[in-house]
Amino acid sequence: MNFLIPLILGIILGYLLRNKIKVNTEVLMSASVVALVFLMGIKAGEVEVSATKAVLYSLTLMLFAVVGSIGVAKVLWREIK
Q: Which parts of the chain span the membrane according to its record (predicted)?
């Protein structure tokens, strides 16, 4: 909810000043995205995760995805032929 108020104010301000002031918003948006990614990295670094569990979960998910995709492809291939 906290992001809606600045967003609405920015829309109103942009609408009112659209032909009066030219601002290079690309630089501001790029700096904002870099700052956001940096802060997200800091927050992600704070989380304690067991690397072994994460790797095992990832490999299990990958295995199910590959096997499921191959299974669906084989079923569809039989239906097409």
A: 28-44, 56-77
